[in-house]
Amino acid sequence: MDRYARQVLLSQIGEGGQQALEDSSVVVVGCGALGSSIAEHLTRAGVGDILVVDRDFIELSNLQRQHLFTEADVGEPKAEITEARLKAVNSDISITGVVDDVTCRNVEHYIKNRDLVLDGTDNLDVRFLLNDACNKNKTPLIFGACVAVHGMSMSILPEGPCLRCLFPQIPPPDSIPTCDTVGIINTLPTVVSSMQSTEAIKYLVSGQLDSRLLVMDVWERDFRTIEVSQRKSCPCCVDHTYEYLEGRALDAAVVCGRNAVHLSPPYEMSLSLDDLADSLSSRGTVRKTPHILFFTRDAETFSIFPDGRAVIKGTNDAKKAQSLYKEYVEKYVKEKYK
Ligand SMILES: [Zn+2]
After folding, report:
1. Which domain holds residue 168?
2. Are 22 and 171 contained in the same domain?
3. Does 336 have pLDDT greater than 80?
4. Residues around the ion ligand 1 (C-beta < 5 A)
5. Which of 79, 190, 219, 313 could pair covalently with 149 via S-S, beta carbons 3.0-4.6 A apart?
6. 10-27 tens-digit pLDDT
7. Coil, strand, or helix at residue 287?
8. How far apart (Å, rounded) are the C-alpha atoms in residues 94 and 135?
9. Which pLDDT tens digit goes with each residue over 37-96?
10. 56 lies in a domain?
11. Looking at the structure, do residues 203 and 156 belong to the same domain, yes or no?
12. CA 131, CA 148: separation in Å to the nearest integer?
């Protein structure tokens, strides 16, 4: 218990609380500035079982604010480096890093049997997906976000209010500022992740969570909490319909700086690339390797994978890419598998 002596002294935690932390199991989704810091706090606090899921690789521009990583880690997967580093910090707990993209197909697998889900992501699509999956599975979610000098955090309980009470719809991608467009001060994620981690520890030892929204401007030293009311028509926490989890939308992500869009279909599929190549051969140029089908028409080249994912090169327009996908891939799938 020496390791935890200073927090066992806390009247809010004590030996009972420490035992509760050791018996707890959480998942941190996203391992950038928020997620890596949350994972570190919870590792040092002795949370017994921590899963970290992240798809990204460490870049030099991350080092300004992501404390777990060093220059030698550039190019390595964040989830793997986080696991290795935090195992060296606390060998008494279980910490696992998984390199994966959290989607509507696998999100429930990752949150299943976890006491708590922590949002360390940097985009609203995954947050709305977590919001749906957590509500459906009755698992609390601690949301956090930061950009420039502004941060926010809110704990979301199964009974609501939820993220969709706060933001009814995902705004168009270019309408909201991101760290890539307006930057971020490096002290901000530390504050937001500390608030999220405190809420996590509090919940795991006491079952209490504060569902008010915390908003802050660290430059102006302005912190406030705001009551969020439940929207009567909230599709998630009132109607329990899970639009993001059910994946009604074909997910399209513009690949930064590459004039390409990555598309993930909303359902599982196993495509025959040979059959698809036959059906596309009259409509453009087709080339195939065992695992990828390349299809070129006009200015665009599709790389299509057997699980239905595709990368369309030659456009930065997500909507155009979605309609191209529907025209050339989905139509074929519907005819073939209807
Ligand atoms: Zn709601």
Report:
1. 2-226
2. yes
3. no
4. 160, 162, 164-165, 234, 236-237
5. 219
6. 999 999 999 999 999 999
7. strand
8. 26
9. 999 999 999 999 999 999 999 999 999 999 999 999 999 999 999 999 999 999 999 999
10. yes
11. yes
12. 24
Query: In the predicted model, what is the mean pLDDT of the chain?
Result: 92
Question: Ligand 1 centre and the CA of 168: distance in Å?
Answer: 8
Q: Could you tell me if 46 and 194 lie in one domain?
A: yes
Q: How confident is the model at residue 334 (pLDDT cuts 50, 70, 90)?
A: low
Query: Buried b vs exposed e over 269-288: b needs ≥16 C-beta within 10 Å?
Result: eebebeebbebbeeeeebee
How far is the centre of ligand 1, averaged over its atoms, from the C-alpha of 135 (Å)?
9
In this model, does residue 325 exceed pLDDT 60?
Answer: yes
What is the number of structural domains in the chain?
2
Distance 209 CA to ligand 1 centre (A): 16
- Is the predicted pLDDT of residue 249 greater than 80, yes or no? no
> In angstroms, what is the span from residue 318 Cα to ligand 1's centroid?
27
Q: What is the C-alpha separation between 225 and 195, in angstroms, rounded?
A: 12
Ligand 1 centroid to Cα of residue 55, in Å, is 27
Alpha helices per DSSP H over the chain: 5-8, 14-22, 33-45, 78-89, 107-111, 124-136, 163-166, 179-182, 188-206, 273-280, 318-325, 331-337
Please count the other Cβ atoms lying within 10 Å of the Cβ belonging to residue 257: 7
CA of 182 to the centre of ligand 1 (A): 29
Q: What is the pLDDT of residue 338?
A: 42
Q: Give the domain CATH number at 188.
A: 3.40.50.720
C-alpha 31/C-alpha 221 separation (Å) is 26
How many helices (H) does the chain have, and how many strands (E)?
12, 14
Asked if residue 316 belongs to a domain, the reply is yes
Same domain, 10 and 59: yes
Shared domain for 65 and 191, answered yes or no, is yes
Q: What's the token pair of residue 204?
A: 């795991």
In terms of pTM, does the model score above 0.70? yes
What is the reported pLDDT for 326? 83
* Predicted pLDDT at 25: 98
